[in-house]
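Example record

One chain of 165 residues, shown exactly as stored in the release files.
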Amino acid sequence: MRFISFMLLFFSMKLHASQVCQFELYGTDSMRYTDSSHKPIKEIVVPQKCSKFKILFKYDKKGKLPSQVMGHNFILTKTTNLKQASQICLEAGQQNHYIPKEANEIIVVSSKILLGGGKDDAKEETICIDTRRLDPIENYTFFCSFPGHLKMMRGILKLEKKVKK
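Predicted structure tokens for this chain:
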């Protein structure tokens, strides 16, 4: 009986830890980032214990518009680089999902494809952020680089502040 209790505790701790270092983010036909309950998301806080943080990026199941019309992606950049990052993404064009093919200093991390509600569109993607590459004093912005989406589909990603003892 103790063994079963220990295993249940162990697995619940493991599940809890993995849930803390990831976040489900949805793109919707109404040009919003939301959580699974459709609450708008404007900020993501990464716990300080996470050296890797996953964004489980999904196209909202209610969405029906194809990616050519209402595609969504996830781009992370320093807030000071937002204008330059959005320009680089637009220049990459629709054929590249508005995501530059080449690595660059401006974009910290991005999704690889546009998600959409069309029959043949990808519906989800996992984006892994190496938080050791993020500067804790820097401000970061995540956004959708599909044309016309930047104003409505963006938010702040920040590292949880370390608590002084």
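Notes: Helices lie at 2-20, 67-70, 82-92.
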